[in-house]
Amino acid sequence: MTSSLTAKTFRAISGQDADARGVAPGEPRNLLCHAGSLAMTKLADGLIDPKLVLSWMLGQLGTSAFLVGLLVPIREAGALLPQIFTAPRLPAMARRKWVWVAGSVGQAVAAAGIVAAGLTLTGAAAGIAVCVLLAVLAVSRSICSVSYKDILGRTVGRSRRGAATGFASSAASVGVILFALALMTGAVDRMVLVLAAMTLAAALWLAAAALFSTLNEEADPGETTDTPWSQFRLLREEPQLVRFIATRGLLTGSALAPPYLVLLGQEAGQGGFDRLGALVLASALASLLSSWGWGRLSDRSSRRVLQLCGLVTALALFGAVALHLAGLSSRLWALPLVLFVLMVAYHGVRQARSTYLVDMAPAELRAPYTAVTNTVIGVILLGSGIFGALASLAGVMVTLVVFAVMALAAVWIGQGLNEVEQGF
Predict the structure, then answer these.
(1) How many C-beta neighbours within 10 Å does residue 412 have?
(2) Pick from 389, 83, 53: nearest CA to 198
(3) Measured between alpha carbons, how far is 382 from 385 in angstroms, rounded to an integer?
(4) 55 by DSSP, 3-state: which?
(5) How far apart are CA 350 and CA 321, in angstroms?
(6) pLDDT tens digits, residue range 292-320?
(7) Is the pTM here over 0.90, yes or no?
(8) Domains of the chain listed by start with CATH number
(9) Residue partners of 183: CB distance under 8 A and separation at least 6
């Protein structure tokens, strides 16, 4: 029997009644378990963001630019590439939730280690220690990622999955906004605040693991039939998967472009634009205002959301170039507005790509689909250094135009994706 509070919360998040046709008896509580666990882990991610928070901390500790530059590649590669090895083992497990729980605990331990390094080490020692611990965190995250889509598909109905993940993103962004505002006020020493935030992140990962362990997942052991590399046969056998990967790969500009907007602001003499608090705030506001809505729209047609986000990405990046050419990029409102619009598109891509993959993949192939997709995307993201070279050789605006054209290409290629939800 679903409690009144659970039923009301389920309806508020999903827009459907707990006793509606197609809603399994235990699904309302499962959806809330997903939303709560994800909200905590997403908040933890925002509090320990390698692109912003960890980079700033190591800079304050006197770590070399070389080691700081390794943070994002370690985070991206560690979170995506190992999945090709872990995915084949999942089908043999009766309950896959324990894989996610283990990954969340691993992230908590790594985060606690990073706090200890920040308190006790400086210079190269701090940089090396944080890079090693970030690698542990990233591999633990990869375990969560490769198992989560399969677990979500087994425990939440097709038309409610995007709502659960979207709500979690929006809820988590409230905490990140408070963190950003605290950074911007300067009321507390920023290093103390950053270390306290990362300590909270470790506690949140532990709490998320505890909550997720209560998920009602039916035992369904299978057989391990794939080897890591045999999973790549899906690229030959499933043309829709290849098209999805191509679409997602072309949309990586929404994630890679923000640093170039910062460089554009610096070229325009807007030195304060790259302050830590302002960047964190822009991303968190975009998540708060858009993630839940993107999730609900993805439940109707994640393909259309991917295409729409491609258009929004292109609009934001072409807009940044136009503002710069018109001499307006130095205005206080210009590039922060562009960054906000771009991050709205970025969060939409995150919601839609996850929902589309879960809904597209056959139940028994969700883990291999996820592993193959993330491995290919991991390679693409590791190639982001090419775009950095392009920026230094041809200029920041050329790089932004390339990202914008990629986003438009994603809109075109995405038109050939099948509808895997009920559609508009």
Answers:
(1) 12
(2) 53
(3) 7
(4) helix
(5) 25
(6) 788 889 888 999 999 999 999 999 999 99
(7) no
(8) 21-215+225-414 (1.20.1250.20)
(9) 190, 193, 194, 276, 277, 280
